[in-house]
């Protein structure tokens, strides 16, 4: 992730996305690709010669969606949809979604990264994530955002 950030800081690179596990640098309108290309390639080559691991620990399967013996079939399906359909899309824009529970038809999720400060995060949660989960798991009645403070309070109560 550090090297991706270094690419994003290059002059002329106005937007950087991770598509299909590859960084994509978009040059601004005033910068031609032939001008920025050598710097992008140099940054990538520096990374490969650094000896740092290619696989990022953050890309490993998340503990919140790891299958558990306690999970019923519905929870397992919810976790799979989150990992395979929802997370990759949200992560492209610099965010993430963490599974926090399923109770009475409501999936509890925590938004992270750019999703926490995005003004349209509620729309993403209700329109995008909720609709996708309801399509694949009809038993899902809704989606609720959980803030970290809410999780801490729940732990104290139970």
Automatic annotation (TrEMBL):
GO terms for molecular function: iron ion binding; iron-sulfur cluster binding. Gene3D superfamilies: Fe-S cluster assembly (FSCA) (3.30.300.130), Scaffold protein Nfu/NifU, N-terminal domain (3.30.1370.70). One of its GO terms (biological process) is iron-sulfur cluster assembly. It holds the Pfam family NifU. Residues 78-144 form the NIF system FeS cluster assembly NifU C-terminal domain. InterPro entries: FSCA_dom_sf (IPR034904), Nfu/NifU_N_sf (IPR036498), NFU1-like (IPR035433), NIF_FeS_clus_asmbl_NifU_C (IPR001075). One of its GO terms (cellular component) is mitochondrion. Belongs to the NifU family. This is NFU1 iron-sulfur cluster scaffold homolog (S. cerevisiae). It comes from Cyprinus carpio. The lineage of its organism: Eukaryota, Metazoa, Chordata, Craniata, Vertebrata.
């Amino acid at each position: 992730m550090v090297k991706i950030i270094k690419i994003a800081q290059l002059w002329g690179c106005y937007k950087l996305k991770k598509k299909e596990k590859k960084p994509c640098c978009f040059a601004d309108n005033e910068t031609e690709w032939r001008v920025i290309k050598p710097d992008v390639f140099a940054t990538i080559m520096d990374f490969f010669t650094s000896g740092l691991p290619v696989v990022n620990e953050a890309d490993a399967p998340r503990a919140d969606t790891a299958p558990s013996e306690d999970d019923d079939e519905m929870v397992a399906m919810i976790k799979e949809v989150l990992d395979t359909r929802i997370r990759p899309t949200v992560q492209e824009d610099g965010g993430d979604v963490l599974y926090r529970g399923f109770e009475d038809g409501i999936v509890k999720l925590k938004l992270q990264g750019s999703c926490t400060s995005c003004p349209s995060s509620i729309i993403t949660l209700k329109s995008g994530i909720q609709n996708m989960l309801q399509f694949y798991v009809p038993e899902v009645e809704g989606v609720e955002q959980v803030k970290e403070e809410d999780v801490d309070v729940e732990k104290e109560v139970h």
